[in-house]
Design a protein that fits this description.
Rossmann fold, alpha/beta, two-stranded antiparallel sheet, 12 strands, globular, single chain
Length: about 300
């Protein structure tokens, strides 16, 4: 059976991040978008700017984000840029809120919920390739957040986030909260949005890294996240987002760390692996993988 390659290092450092990117042996061309979570003010588990600076600069990359669909401190452009500045990302690289000038639709080829469209920040068209640089952790709605969530919810505009969360019912962020009861539909909608982004750039123009540190059961979008209960694990990377998230999920499930219980319970409660299952069904990658240790 064909297996995807997933690379791993225990070295959670600038050097480790560079090393694992180079192990991918990919060439992200043109103007490179580095998609991260800039972190909701009050939270503190988001990727440290000093950790990612060297890699972002190596790629001559632009850190990209989109506004949130919940009314926090990243809901509007001005306060979101302030958060990005306060969290230190403007000190290391150019930063771009991709929906600051509105959004655009890109096609979803396949799927059953998003009616053939994903709504993303309009600045997405300014980039030639993208690195999904994700902090792998829990999430209150998705169960966990890794490459697939970062590429779907993270790349979607405010309206696009509402579109995915409501399973293609509304693009109004305030109305979406009345339509968030279809959990599997939400997870499937994220996978559909993932397919739209991959099709937009082309598989050859994308790469994926998941950093497994500060592993809280809560997302970096939480202003008051639960304290991490697990020890840091390392960095995983792949050219296959399905295999990457499957590997990180399996790593948590199979860990001997007794602190995993809360996160495992959250992932199981939210049926988190279903996003991976649906992304596989949509042809975005393989669920079988081999881990290649680069330490």
């Amino acid at each position: 059976m064909e297996k995807a390659k997933v690379y791993f290092t225990k070295d959670i450092s600038s050097k480790g991040l560079i090393k694992i990117y180079e192990a991918l042996n990919c060439d992200l061309k043109g103007k490179v978008a580095i998609k991260i979570s800039t972190g909701e003010p009050g939270g503190h588990n988001f990727l440290n700017p000093n950790l990612i600076k060297e890699l972002v600069n190596k790629l001559n990359g632009t850190i990209v984000e989109c506004n949130t669909a919940y009314r926090g401190k990243r809901f509007d452009v001005d306060s979101h840029y302030q958060a990005i500045k306060d969290h230190g990302f403007m000190d290391i690289a150019p930063c771009d809120i991709m929906d600051e000038e509105g959004d655009m639709e890109i096609p979803v080829n396949g799927g059953k919920h998003l009616h053939g469209k994903n709504i993303v920040g309009s600045h997405l068209k300014n980039y030639d390739s993208m690195l999904m640089l994700s902090h792998f952790k829990g999430h209150a709605m998705g169960g966990f957040g890794g490459a697939l969530k970062n590429m779907s919810i993270g790349v979607s505009s405010k309206a696009g986030k509402a579109w995915i969360h409501s399973v293609g019912i509304t693009a109004d962020p305030d109305e979406m909260w009345g339509h968030v009861d279809n959990q599997d539909g939400f997870l499937e909608s994220m996978a559909e949005a993932d397919k739209a982004v991959v099709d937009f750039f082309g598989k050859e123009n994308m790469a994926y890294i998941n950093v497994m540190n500060n592993i809280s059961i809560d997302c970096d979008c939480d202003s008051n996240p639960a304290a991490p209960e697990m020890e840091d694990i390392g960095i995983f990377a792949s050219l296959d987002p399905v295999a990457l998230d499957q590997c990180c999920f399996d790593t948590i499930i199979n860990s001997s760390d007794t602190g995993k219980k809360s996160l495992v319970n959250r992932m199981e409660e939210k049926h988190a692996i279903h996003t991976v299952e649906e992304a596989y069904n949509l042809g975005l990658g393989l669920r079988e993988y081999e881990v290649i240790n680069i330490d």
